[in-house]
Amino acid sequence: MVNLRCPVCAGALEKRAGAYLCPKNHSFDIAKSGYVNLLLNSSQGHHGDDKLMVRARRDFLDKGYYDRFIAAVADAAAEFTPQEATVLDAGCGEGIYSLAVLRAIEKAGKHGELLGVDISKTALQYASKRSPDFTLCVASCAHLPVEDGSVDEVLNIFSPFVPEEFARVLKPGGYLLRAYPLREHLWELKALIYDTPRDNPPTPLTTEGFTLVETREVRDIIHLSCNEDILSLFRMTPYYYKTGAKDQQKAERAQELDVQLAFGLAVYQKD
Fold first, then answer.
1. Do 156 and 91 touch, CB atoms closer than 8 A?
2. Distance (Å, rounded) from C-alpha 168 to C-alpha 32?
3. What are residue 17's phi and psi, to 5 degrees?
4. Angle between helices 121-130 and 96-107 (to 10 degrees)
5. Looking at residues 247-269, what average pLDDT do you find?
6. Which pLDDT score, from 0 to 100, does residue 44 have?
7. For the segment 215-232, what is each residue's pLDDT rounded down to a tens digit?
8. How many CA atoms lie within 13 A of 84 on its CB side?
9. pLDDT tens figures, 64-107
10. Which residues are within 8 A (CB) of 44 and not within 5 positions of it... i.e. 6 or more apart?
11. What pLDDT, on a 0 to 100 scale, did the predictor assign at position 146?
């Protein structure tokens, strides 16, 4: 069972008609699209990915380009969850990984309950349309609205990495699945945009409070056959927001592109 806590007083939240309520009567309405906003103010995080990035990511992922990696995340999550599992997707975005994980857990003959947390209301509106089986909260990964030691597994898929907060919400022996880009990930996209592209820097994997159980790599080459998909990929990455009009025009002119995908997946267990 997902144990939400009040962001004001840390009391347990109880779901009632159209809202969550804590013992001190702090109340949080559930939006029509199904999420609850537990982000008190902007000091807990930015407003999240904008509509352009969220829509681009949804459109791109829905076409199946990352399916091999999504399946790898789902398989690993199902492998490391107990028979009755509470999973927290920290930075769930549009929910495509969340849904894949939930279905993989069910396919493995287990029962899973999934809480998706993101600071983007737009992303959670899309996530709510993927499945009615999610509990969705607007909140920061640095201030998860979850009781201590109440989660069996945390997913950290290209979202802010906050190990101390993940350790707080995980049960003893719980698992953390962390995704990160390998050196050559999206190299051809960067070569298209930048005059001097650079490899992705290595991701430090040693994390206090956790034991690294194993790492996995997923590699693929995808063919983007139209400008629409090239722009969707570009706009769902930070590169789009770090380039000027001149570099953005390079992507706007491209009609096809082969791109390397190179993902790392680290599995940790809470000490």
1. yes
2. 30
3. -60, 105
4. 30
5. 97
6. 46
7. 999 999 999 999 999 999
8. 3
9. 999 999 999 999 999 999 999 999 999 999 999 999 999 999 99
10. 119, 139, 140, 142, 143
11. 97
What CA–CA distance (Å, rounded) separates 124 from 43? 20
Residue 65: which of 189, 148, 206, 155 has the closest Cα? 189
**Residue 250 pLDDT more than 90?**
yes
Contact 38, 28 (CB under 8 A): yes
- The mean pLDDT value for 207-221 works out to 97
Token pair recorded at residue 42: 């902007």
pLDDT at 1: 76
Percent of the chain residues past pLDDT 70, beyond the cut:
97
Cβ contacts of 64 within 8 Å, gap of 6 or more: none
One-letter amino acid at 27 equals S
Assess contact for 250 and 168: CB atoms under 8 A: no
